[in-house]
Amino acid sequence: MATPTSDRGSSSTPTTFDSIPFTAGIPMASAVSDAGAGAAGPGLGWRDPPKGLELSQVHYLVRHGERTPVRSRLTHIFPEKWNLCRAGREFDACVLELTPTADNSIPPFQVGQVDSRKSATMYSSIMRMRRSVETESSISGRGQKDEEGECLLGELTDLGRLSTLRFGRELRSLYVDRLGFLPQLLTSKDHDALYFRSTNMGRTIESLEQVIRGLHSTAVQPNTQGQFIPKVLVRNGTDENLLPNTYGCSRLQALDKAFAEAAARLHNPELEQFDSQLEAVTGTKPRVDGRPRLNGIVDTVKAAQAHGFPMPAALADTRMLRKFEDAVVAEWFSGYNDVDPEKRTEFRRLAMGRFVNDLANRMSSRAEKGQQDPLKFAVYATHDTALAGLLNTLDVFDGRWPTFTSSMGVELFRDTSAPTSSSIFSRAARLVGFKSAHPQQQHYVRVRYGDRDMKLPACAAQGKHFDGRPELCTLEAFMGIAKSLQHPKGWTWEQQCAVGQGPRSSK
């Protein structure tokens, strides 16, 4: 296993995994100015709403926890193998089992559909498994002995599991223990009240599982009648809207590529001032479109920092790292704020428009139907590009890369003190095509990023927020944002994504 040193060529004592503090870099433990963008501390920065406002629905987006780098880079500085993934190596796998027979015979193979729930010859079972990482060197150089806890590239580490577990505990502490918004003990009757969704990646699914473990009380015993069994929803890649989906949208991919190339032209000249400093320790010059790309270097450094690795002096220069971050932020997110309003709107619409409209529809349904719409609490496990994308779309991005386990909350409040008004809600509902059947009280939406309330520019005007509390957007104003992200001709996302697309292969 490679070991990092304090500088390239240094003879200082190498760092081993055993010497790294396990709690290093946990956002939940240090909600201070340097904790990272979007980090939340104890209490999640909750601020009581004005008297008369009652919490009605909550949505939380959370970036996955700390992980290993997505590619193997800078291995002369940091370990090539990260043995930080012990917790997920043993697990219970769901397997299909055969019902024992008197003669231990195997039933004939069944062609067509198989339903183990109705079969007399098979049933679903649980089998304990252990998983390890295999490499070429583990076969040719060391036999087939694996290293305990070795991580795959981009894998959620034990630290990432802990920080997302702690985030789930904070959700429970606030919304269950303090506010009583969710019950102390979830049962099967609460299934429709909670919504859990993740992108189809191991690190987000595992992060969501840890969040649920922190949110869901362990008081209920397994196999107890009426127990709450969380359902995690995952979409196919082509349908995903929890992040800017360049995989499923060729038009967005083309726009994204063009903005990345523009960022390279803009920032590469300014990055030249750090050539000698970075080249001395990494052997490469910092370039947005370099080899490795600058975002890859930044990704590796941030992952190493989060896990407590010592930084070579050349990589600990905060001014240099901030310039690198600015360049990478421009590479990934400049499309949301392009000077051309048409391109800016198109990029926002394709990248995050569908998800914003999903949020608006869920909140409008709750506002219109009240308790008849059972959804109260939703958690979405996603990525840095989703949080930054949503913040940019709402015009509240601070230019800093979202840290591991950063979070964004969207809360719906009902004004119980104001008289009912059919006109306010019906105007808001019409903005996103929702039909209101009953008069409704005024509703407000609050967006929180980490510990901070976000004051949305779209809600800044008088009458578009709660008087004296600009962070509390009227639902009508928020739904206006969703409306602005719909195609003016009513095109579907798929139709928009096909713009400029050449002939497709028949394969």
TrEMBL record:
Gene Ontology MF term list: phosphatase activity
Name of the protein in its database record: Related to acid phosphatase ACP2
Name of a matching Pfam family: His_Phos_2
Domain of life: Eukaryota
InterPro entries: Acid_Pase_AS, His_Pase_clade-2, His_PPase_superfam, Histidine_acid_phosphatase
The keyword Hydrolase belongs to this UniProt entry's keyword annotation: yes
UniProt entry tagged with the keyword Hydrolase: yes
Organism phylogeny: Eukaryota, Fungi, Dikarya, Basidiomycota, Ustilaginomycotina
Family designation: Belongs to the histidine acid phosphatase family.
Keywords: Hydrolase
Gene3D superfamilies from the UniProt entry: Phosphoglycerate mutase-like (3.40.50.1240)
